[in-house]
Amino acid sequence: MVNSSVATAAELADQLRNRRAKEPVGNALLDAAAQGKLTEGALRRLMGTEAHCHTAELAAYGTALARFPRRPAADLFIRLARLVCEAQPKLESCARALGMGVDVHTSRWPTEHAAYAFNGTVSWLASQSSQAAFALAIYTDLQVYFSGCAEVIARAKESPLHVPQEVLDYYEDEAPEGLERLALDVVQDGLDRGDDPQDALFSARLMEESIGQFWRAAAGTPETPAT
To answer: Which of 187, 103, 176 is nearest to 142 (CA)?
Structure first.
């Protein structure tokens, strides 16, 4: 039984936007760029942290597909898995352009906890949350991650830092057309089946906070010392 007056995915999305405006989790990498402190080392850390996420995401989307093997949920998880698979060789090209001599998808660097915060969140939500909760978390990820990347790259292009074209191409991409709408359709389907909207809001915020940790890991802030 739904225990809230919120009844639609659109209303949940509005609540998330309002909370984001009032309580932003921040983007430490964007802060560094704004202060003229964005370095090539931070870009390398971004590659490594991103690669950690790829590995966890593929497992998470497979888990979610096994738990919710019906449309529209199945469509969403299959599209997300394909998106990550297609991104992996592009990320490896970015790492090579930055002179990283390791396979970023098998390296454990960066090693601090913040670099794995997103992984833990997406894995836990995929195995434990409801369909609506996981889909709303994915919707939040699509909104926050892609816009954050675009802002960082825009700042980097204005700075003296040389950013390889491979990195610019990778992070200037927008969320695939229709994917956010599909995520909300999956949220609504879950709500229609009786999923708790408050649980969905909690899960989405948890995802957003983990993305904040993602940015801190990439920036190498005092909370996540560089190694």
So the answer is: 176
